[in-house]
Task: structure prediction
Amino acid sequence: MPFISLRDLEINIGVLQVQALALKPAEFEAAERAAAIRIVELAGVEEPETAADAPEWIRQPAAYLTFNALVPRMRSPELITWA
Result:
């Protein structure tokens, strides 16, 4: 029950930054799941059935939380262009 899709992550973070991660589907799903748990805890919202059902206002925070969970995978600090 995701808040965002991989495409939402690319839109909010940047295609090149997401591609630099060379994600496997399971890695994205694990990071998105961690972000979803945090969103539910902090915002008190229910998880949607699909990313398309998620409210628009939650997509950017979900993308940043998901990306934050993935950043430790990055090997090169210069890839973190938004920091």
Remarks:
- The radius of gyration is 12 Å.
- Residues 25-43 form the longest helix (19 residues).
- Residues 19 and 76 are 13 Å apart (CA to CA).
